[in-house]
Write a structure and sequence with these properties.
Helix content is 56%, strand content 10%. By secondary structure, the chain is mostly helical.
């Protein structure tokens, strides 16, 4: 836990945490020093760069390309420690995503929908990028997300919104790359 008393008098910035920002009113107790900084709420972080201001408002951003880079960095470390496992997983992934009766785009959309339903932020990032790279449209993404919401309920709605945001980021990045090339 961060001791907020050790931070200077300014906005409090929390770094990356594994899933999503959730503001809970009054419980559990605020971190030490929160009162001095004017924070009436306890912040539970799961997944985004977050800034909590003195007035209690917060902002959250996820850059999905950065998220993938962060995962890739530690995947390399895992590959050094458990090479057989990572090699087997890589083979499974390649086999599952190879076009057959279902084309690659459909498989990416399936993987994306499952990622949303099981609430896997990293998976959402990879498969939103994969769907964009295989030519999925924004409407196809939305419909796949709709199936995920049907299967996963309200939490899938939240991850579905993140999946669409990730797709849009990769689409914009692709357009920017195409215009500068």
């Amino acid at each position: 836990m961060i001791d907020l008393r050790q931070l200077p008098d300014r906005d409090v910035v929390f770094g990356y945490a594994p899933q999503r920002l959730l503001m809970l009113m009054g419980r559990p107790p605020a971190p030490p020093g929160a009162e001095r900084l004017g924070l009436a709420r306890r912040s539970v972080l799961h997944g985004a760069a977050c800034c909590i201001r003195r007035d209690g408002t917060a902002s959250m951003t996820i850059d999905y390309a950065t998220r993938i880079a962060e995962i890739d960095e530690y995947s390399i470390e895992l590959r050094k420690l458990i090479p057989e496992t990572l090699s087997a997983f890589g083979g499974l992934s390649r086999a599952a995503q190879t076009a057959g009766s279902l084309d690659k785009k459909t498989k990416e959309l399936l993987a994306l929908a499952i990622s949303v339903a099981i609430r896997c932020e990293g998976c959402v990032a990879y498969h939103a990028r994969g769907a964009q790279r295989t030519g999925a449209t924004r409407q196809e993404m939305a419909e796949a997300i709709g199936v995920a919401i049907q299967m996963g309920g309200g939490p899938s709605l939240n991850y579905g919104a993140d999946a669409l945001r990730a797709f849009d980021q990769f689409q914009a990045e692709n357009r920017t790359s195409a215009t500068t090339a």
